[in-house]
Amino acid sequence: MTVTSTSVTMRQRRQSYKDEYTKQTLETPNFPKSVSDKQIFAFCLAFRMLNSLLVQSYFNPDEHWQGPEVAHRIAFGYGHLTWEWKQGIRSYFHPLIFLPLYKILALLHLDTPWFMMRAPRLLQSVFSAVGDLYLYKLSAVLFGDSVAKWALFSQLSNWFMFYCFSRTLSNSLETVLTLLVLSAQQVQSHGCMLVSLSFFNARDKLKFVFLEVAPIGTLVLGLTCLLDRFMYGTWVLVPLNFLKFNFLSSGGDYYGTHKWHWYFTQGFTVMVFSHIPFCIAGIIYSKQWKFTGLLAWVLGFYSILGHKEFRFVLPVLPIALIFSGYSLAMIEDPSVSSPPHKEKEFSKKHNKYPPKMTAAILFLLATNIPMALYMSLVHQRGPEDVMNHLAKEAFQGKVKSILFLTPCHATPYYSMLHRNLPMQFLDCTPSSEEKGVLDESDRFMTDPVSFMSKFANNSSFPSHIVLFESEEQKLRSSLISFDYREVKRFFNAHFKVDRDLQASVVVYVRIIYSLI
């Protein structure tokens, strides 16, 4: 009797969601749809694949070390696992996405330096295109196809989405999943990842939590735990370990902190960039307060944490860009903002945009395109260029071992080199014992000459040494005395990135190996 009653209740709830969605759809401006979903996806896929090929710079270590590097280790039997994997605060779900890709490349003998460098981002570009499509769908359900096309324009033209969305960060995949869930939630008010919107829509909130949220959440958590149990070889509750490290013990603060208002005054504003005035206007005129509230809630929640990064709030950037699209659609046709009962029939397409529309489009393109290209092709490209060079050299058998005298995780690793050679980098594992104790990376950055002298006494010399120009200037004499000479120098940045101006990345090779 209980099971039957529950089934009836769930059917009734689904029907009420459909009725609510139908009502919402009827109240949405009925703009003509000129293109199909397949055409939109094909365009977005072509755009994102080109986008991924144009991204040739280094943004965040996790792009390589927490995804492709882990997958490479599983696929080929060698690779480095950072300290997070030893403490069980990372799930294998995201890295395993790249495992079939590596297996296919090896099977087809395409695991060359070019493919090992580009293939993971090309795979991510497929997921990103799906995210773009569902941003369009979500916008169409909320406001109509006219707003949807400008929301998609805002997403594709935004410099940070271009710079970050095709990278192999777990945050990029989270952004795609967020758009999928929000789109599904608008259609049938159902989802497990961002349940807050559904929660506010539900009439009986307790039944909603226990009959819908809890079962789905339990299923997802159970499957993830089983996957991690298989990969770790023991039971590991990753969400709990992640919560304990990042929230309860503030472990993330080890990597730097920002003021509480950073996302509002710097981080998120830089990400939205020149779309900000359009975003604010869209929020005011669209009156979509639930999505505005979701945006504010996420930014506010992450503002509580001491350690802050741009990528943490990437999943809600598309929401801001939807509002930007709404504002652009209003400029094109003011009737977009008219109440449903007063709305006039959508105006026919004109051959030319209104002058204000043309100015807005040119403004957004003129401000975002240079920024996107500079950050993707110029700024901090040194780490990727040096690993691409070393991968080609290793492919030809010219590399025996490598020492990275850089801040830890400053370059990609085995996933790009793709040769099982001895490599060493400076450790920066957070110390759980005594706060204020400098790790190996910090000790080197504080006194490179002293560190190098101790290293020479206790370790064998590698065939290649990689370091930034700021440290290379201090160590040049020591390196020459140890029979090293400069063989390559790669541009990295025009302005200060970390502690000093890391203008270039330099490769030194020991003379006996340079003769090979």
UniProtKB/TrEMBL annotation:
UniProt-listed Pfam families: Glyco_transf_22
Gene Ontology CC terms, in alphabetical order: endoplasmic reticulum membrane
Protein's membrane topology: Multi-pass membrane protein
Major site of localization recorded for this protein: endoplasmic reticulum
Gene Ontology molecular functions: alpha-1,2-mannosyltransferase activity
Keyword Hydrolase attributed: no
UniProt GO BP: GPI anchor biosynthetic process
Membrane-traversing stretches: 205-224, 260-283, 312-331, 357-377
UniProt entry keywords in alphabetical sequence: Endoplasmic reticulum, Glycosyltransferase, Membrane, Transferase, Transmembrane, Transmembrane helix
UniProt-listed Enzyme Commission number(s): 2.4.1.-
Enzyme class: transferase
Localisation: Endoplasmic reticulum membrane
Family statement: Belongs to the glycosyltransferase 22 family.
Protein name: Mannosyltransferase
Provenance organism: Pisum sativum (Garden pea)
